[in-house]
Amino acid sequence: MASGRAGTRVVLMHDASKPLLALEKVLRAQGHRPVGCFEIDTPAVTSVSLMRPDIVLACVEVPTDDALEVLGRLQCEHPAPMALVAERSDPRLTRRVIRVGISDYVIGNLERVQLGILFDVASTRFDWQQQLLKSLQDARTRLADQRDIGRAKGLIMKRRELDEDQAYQLLRKMAMDRKQLLGDFSRQLLVAAEAL
Fold this sequence. Notes:
- It is a single chain.
- The protein has 196 residues and is α/β, with parallel strands linked by helices.
- The chain has two domains: 9-134, Response regulator (Rossmann fold, 3-Layer(aba) Sandwich); 136-195, Winged helix-like DNA-binding domain superfamily/Winged helix DNA-binding domain (Arc Repressor Mutant, subunit A, Orthogonal Bundle), CATH 1.10.10.
- 56% of the residues lie in helices and 14% in strands.
- It has seven helices and five strands; from the N terminus they run βαβαβαβαβααα.
- The chain has helices spanning 20-29, 45-51, 65-77, 94-99, 115-160, 164-177, 182-195, and strands at 9-14, 33-39, 55-60, 82-86, 104-107.
- A five-stranded parallel sheet has the order 2-1-3-4-5.
- Helix 5 packs across helix 6 (164-177), helix 5 crosses helix 7 (182-195) and helix 6 crosses helix 7.
- The N and C termini lie far apart (50 Å).
C-alpha cells in the first residue's frame, strides 16, 4: 500500500494551468519522489504502468470531462491509488470523479495541501475499494459455480438416472479425477453436453 510517508513514488498528471517545476517542487518539499510527470491530455497510460508509482496525483485547475476520461482509462488499465487536487470544482463532475476511480479529491491550492494525509487517505480508500471489488467478484463466481453445478448435476441425474446425491457425488469424483474445481468442471461438462 502506498502511504504518505516520505519517499512516496508519485506520478504527476497535470494540466497547463500550473508550471510543472512548481508542482514538482511542492512534491519534493514534502518529501515525495516524482517518478514521472505528464500533461493530463498526453496518452501516458502505458508509461505510467512502467513507473510503478505508489500513487497517481492529478493536479488541475478544474476537472474536465476529458481529464476524467484519461484518469478513468488509466485507472481501468493500471489500477493504483489516485488523488485529484483541483483549484476549483465543477459540481456536475463531482460524482464522476469518484466513478472513474479517484480515491481522494481535494479542492485547493497544491501548496497548501498536506500531501502525506492526502496520499494516506487515497491509498486506504483504494485498498478498501479493491477488497470490495474482489469480494464482489468472488460472490459472483460462487453464484455462477452453484448455478453451473446445479445444472450439471441435473444433466447427470437425467442421463444416468441417478438421484441428486448420487449425481453430485459422481460430478465431484469426475472433477477430482481431473484435478479441476467443481464449478470449472461443471461448466466444461455443460459445454460438452451442448455440443452433442
